[in-house]
């Protein structure tokens, strides 16, 4: 066992390496004479700047019985109640045209990077669910006695794993998406699900085959049929064994989701590109984007580690 002094020493080495990496990044920035300004990134994550409230259509400003200003259409319909806003830019009797500013409202709002992060989480979660379901089916086909099912699953796995994900996204969006009139988000989820399912299928197949055959024979001897034995005996044990490689694949799924930006889905990566073009702070933005991806993957890794410990304690 390591002594306390040895642990402190190696922890110090770890900290020194991290500090060295940070120093190298700083010196690199100094070498290219780059002016770091992290404040430029903050409004793109969350901000409370005043938002303009515009008129949805032509009308006039009138006051109601309570003395509150309202935008009223020519037909007498109340379009906007200006009492909800503090900074009002119009007065009673003003004629207002569509698009004119009525007021401004200061409230905390999420920025484009946070919106892109939400899209990345959504597309990753949907893809994760469908990848698990499809991967389970393909994995069971992979070990089936039926040669047609087994060869179909092998063909699927080899084709998907043998072609780049970027090419698959283009095929799903421009070919399949055109035929079935799919939205960008749906096409992205399908492409990611189909791609990830091929790897999930092999992980599940290896997990099932790692269980001793005596487990299946014992279950069948107790009167269970094949599906019952698989669901109640084999798959729970295989799930525990495949959890670490599954976690790695799910983390790859989150990172691979950045490729859907090529079909104009405004995920975190595409939002980062748009922010760079508007803020002229490329290093700060891309470091922030990398940090947000790291938060997602680290959270998933932490959750799976907790699940592993809980399952291990239940044995």
TrEMBL record:
Keywords: Amino-acid transport, Cell membrane, Membrane, Transmembrane, Transmembrane helix, Transport
TM region positions: 9-28, 123-144, 156-176, 182-201, 285-304
Matching SUPFAM superfamilies: MetI-like
Segments forming domain ABC transmembrane type-1: 117-304
Membrane-protein topology: Multi-pass membrane protein
UniProt cross-references to InterPro entries, sorted A to Z: AA_ABC_transptr_permease_3TM, ArtM/GltK/GlnP/TcyL/YhdX-like, MetI-like, MetI-like_sf
Keyword ATP-binding in record: no
Compartment list: Cell inner membrane; Cell membrane
Family designation: Belongs to the binding-protein-dependent transport system permease family. HisMQ subfamily.
Physiological role: Part of the binding-protein-dependent transport system for glutamine; probably responsible for the translocation of the substrate across the membrane.
UniProt name for this protein: Amino acid ABC transporter permease
Annotated organism of origin: Agarivorans aestuarii
């Amino acid at each position: 066992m390591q002594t306390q002094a040895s642990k402190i020493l190696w922890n110090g080495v770890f900290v020194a390496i991290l500090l060295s990496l940070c120093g190298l990044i700083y010196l690199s920035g100094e070498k290219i004479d780059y002016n770091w300004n992290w404040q430029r990134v903050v409004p793109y994550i969350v901000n409370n700047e005043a938002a303009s409230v515009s008129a949805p259509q032509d009308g006039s400003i009138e006051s109601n019985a309570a003395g509150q200003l309202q935008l009223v259409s020519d037909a007498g319909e109340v379009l906007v109640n200006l009492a909800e806003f503090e900074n009002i830019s119009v007065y009673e009797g003003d004629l207002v045209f569509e698009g004119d500013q009525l007021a401004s409202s200061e409230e905390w709002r999420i920025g484009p990077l946070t919106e892109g992060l939400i899209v990345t989480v959504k597309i990753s979660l949907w893809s994760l669910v469908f990848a698990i379901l499809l991967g389970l089916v393909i994995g069971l086909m992979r070990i089936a006695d039926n040669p047609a099912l087994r060869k179909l699953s092998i063909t699927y796995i080899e084709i998907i794993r043998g072609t780049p994900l970027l090419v698959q996204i283009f095929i799903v969006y421009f070919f399949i998406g055109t035929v079935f009139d799919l939205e960008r988000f749906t096409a992205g989820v399908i492409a990611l699900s189909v791609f990830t399912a091929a790897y999930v299928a092999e992980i599940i197949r290896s997990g099932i085959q790692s269980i001793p055959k005596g487990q299946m024979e014992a279950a069948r001897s107790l009167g269970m049929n094949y599906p019952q034995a698989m669901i109640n005996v084999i798959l729970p044990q295989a799930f525990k064994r495949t959890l670490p490689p599954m976690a790695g694949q799910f983390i790859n799924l989150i990172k691979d989701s950045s490729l859907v930006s090529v079909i104009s889905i405004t995920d975190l990566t595409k939002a980062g590109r748009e922010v760079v073009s508007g803020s002229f702070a490329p290093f700060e933005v891309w470091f922030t984007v990398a940090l947000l991806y790291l938060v997602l993957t680290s959270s998933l890794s932490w959750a799976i580690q907790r699940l592993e410990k809980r399952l291990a304690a239940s044995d």
